[in-house]
Amino acid sequence: MGIVIYRSDLDRFFAFERTCSYYPNDTSAVEIEKGSNILYCPKCGSKYVITEDEAMVLQGPANMSLKSYRTFINSNRLYITN
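Given the sequence above, the corresponding structure tokens read:
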């Protein structure tokens, strides 16, 4: 379904799977609440809070964090890996 990239600082990026952990085989994707570090699923209402390296469940019915990806910057390029 894609990846959401969250920038917490000038050179700090976090990347997470957009597929809600409650509906892992569905095509619905989490969205970011504008101006916040909260992701939400419009289908089930689950909310996730982005911390240092995790998108933890803030409100269910989901009970698992979103899959996270490694990020790093090299020569002014952002890389995202498993």
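The two ends are 15 Å apart (CA to CA). Try to locate this feature in the token string yourself.
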